[in-house]
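Anyone have tokens for Methylenetetrahydrofolate reductase? Sequence:
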Amino acid sequence: MLSGVFFNILVNICLCNKVFGVDYMKIVEMYESKKPVLSLEIFPPKMDYPLETVFKTLDELKKLNPKYISVTYGAGGSNRGRTVEIASRIKNEYKIESLAHLTSIGHSKEEVYSILNELLNENINNIMALRGDIPGGVQEFDIKNQEYMYASDLIKDINKHSGDFGIAAAAHPDGHPECSRLSYDLNNLKQKVDSGVDFLTTQLFFDNRIYYDFIEKCTQIGINCPIVPGIMPVLNAKQIRRIIYLCGASMPAKLLILVDKYENNPEDMQKAGIEYASRQVEDLIKNGVPGVHLYTMNKSQQIAEIVQNVGLEITTK
Ligand code: FAD
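Reply: yep, here.
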């Protein structure tokens, strides 16, 4: 008969899937490569759209040979099931590593643990751990009443749950909009990394100098993990204004001129946006970034153009 202790160990090992030879690779290991790593971000379609629409996009994105694909999470859990299902199909059917986003805002610890178990059951062990935005229009919403106040609280819990998870977190080169000073934000970021983060992905930015300065400041305060630049092409003037309003990224004059010029000409706006993002990526690669994370907005053709413009250097073949 198995002793109680031995039985528990066996159950834990089985739960971790290792007995079945499941490959639990942590994404951070990819950044040890000398070549820049191409990764992509997609979002689940809204609940009233068929889930299958995103797989048509993924069929195309797969051709770009990304090393991993991240799947966003609706803060508050509105499309939680869809994030897990899409991330699972990316990993288990498309055979591409997936990075499942998880926002803690609005979630209890119990709910978070249940999501972590779901992810491990689907062989997903890489998480982008986020706090999420404070809901707009909700009166008297007090972050202090949340079980998780900051992303770092979530990160500590993920590490407590299981050492199997590779953990990414968000960095904000332009400063997080809630924080009154970049230096405070940086110190909070340092605390977040120290709570157990493997690598950081940045919020979108449109001026590479902001990213380079940010990296310098991070190094000065001892943030030494890979900091992957997140790039979003401007494909729609109205949409980008809304995104900037929400995330607090600044827009350099040369991009503002393009957005003003092509505001009422969507086709030329797209061309200019693709060209602008391609030059940004090219410059980043020249300057030795660990990789580039493209915010695809589920637009495969435009993303393919950027990858082609930049050339084979970025691909991981
Ligand atoms: P935190 O790191 O918790 O920071 C939030 C604020 O609190 C900052 O101002 C910070 O300076 C401050 N702070 C942190 N720690 C402390 C502390 N100890 N004391 C005092 N102040 C502190 N949103 C979604 O809803 N779904 C997604 O899938 C999603 N994916 C994203 C992916 C990336 C790469 C990025 C950059 C953002 C993403 N977001 C997503 C947006 C993100 O949820 C928001 O930017 C959110 O407002 C902040 O999340 P965070 O994890 O950076 O929070």
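Residues 45 and 51 are 6 Å apart (CA to CA).
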